[in-house]
Automatic annotation (TrEMBL):
Record-annotated membrane-spanning stretches: 12-29, 49-66, 86-107, 145-165
Keyword Transmembrane helix belongs to the record: yes
Family: Belongs to the peroxisomal membrane protein PXMP2/4 family.
Protein name from the UniProt record: Uncharacterized protein
Main location: membrane
InterPro entries attached to this UniProt entry: Mpv17_PMP22
Signal peptide from the UniProt entry: none
Source organism superkingdom: Eukaryota
Alphabetical UniProt keywords: Membrane, Transmembrane, Transmembrane helix
Lineage: Eukaryota, Metazoa, Chordata, Craniata, Vertebrata
Length: 224
């Protein structure tokens, strides 16, 4: 029943239905992040700022962007889908990520609205390449045009959770995000130190693997 209502709304009011759903799901991702972080008090101002950016830019941009892609590369053939994916990930994805970091910082009144962008944009974009190409492939192949922004909103629910974590607690990498999920009480500095220690242990293990055979050969030669 709900699915039928949503489908009918998307057909009759495609812009309103798609953009509203996208913004609500994106803001919901921020709420999920705060619940995982086990905050004593919900930061409703941050959720409001995320919703403003999601509705004013993200939802609107994706609504018209997906239609522009379909007009330029119509159909679901392999070549057309590949072109849409390539443009989406090389242009739209970096732009949307940049607007999120700078837009939320601007609404919070930060003096340097590019601080988070400089520190976390590249890592975030690389992480997105492990997620969005697969979601957009399904979007371009399976979804009708009037539902594509809404489908992106559903996918963006999880992505927004990651983005909000990266902006407030993370560094844009998936590894730190997973470490946070496993133990939300850890600070970013503690997670970085743990990753550095793991890296040192792996490096030591690789050195041992190289040195140990040489040491045994040396002992054998000496004994003979």
């Amino acid at each position: 029943m709900r699915r039928a209502v949503l489908k009918e709304a998307a057909k009759r009011f495609p812009w309103l239905a798609n953009v509203t759903l996208y913004g609500c799901l994106f803001a919901g991702g921020d709420l999920v992040h705060q619940l995982i972080a086990q905050k004593e008090h919900m930061d409703w101002k941050h959720t409001r700022n995320v919703a403003i950016v999601a509705i004013s830019f993200q939802g609107n941009f994706n609504y018209f962007w997906l239609r522009a892609l379909e007009r330029r590369f119509p159909g679901k053939s392999a070549g057309m889908v590949f072109r849409k994916l390539l443009l989406d990930q090389s242009f739209a994805s970096p732009l949307a990520t940049s607007v999120f970091y700078t837009g939320v910082s601007f609404l919070e009144g930060k003096e340097d609205v590019f601080e988070d962008w400089r520190e976390k944009f590249f890592n975030t974009w690389k992480t997105g390449l492990m997620y969005w190409p697969f979601m957009q492939f399904l979007n371009f192949v399976l979804m009708p045009l009037y539902m594509r922004t809404a489908f992106m909103g559903c996918c963006a629910f999880l992505w927004a959770t990651f983005l909000c974590f990266s902006r407030q607690n993370g560094d844009g990498t998936a590894g730190v995000a997973f470490a946070f999920i496993m133990d939300p009480r850890k600070t970013l500095e503690e997670m970085r130190e743990a990753r550095e220690e793991e890296g040192m242990e792996e490096e030591a293990a690789s050195v041992i693997q190289v040195v140990e055979p040489w040491r045994k050969d040396r002992e054998f030669v000496t004994s003979t």
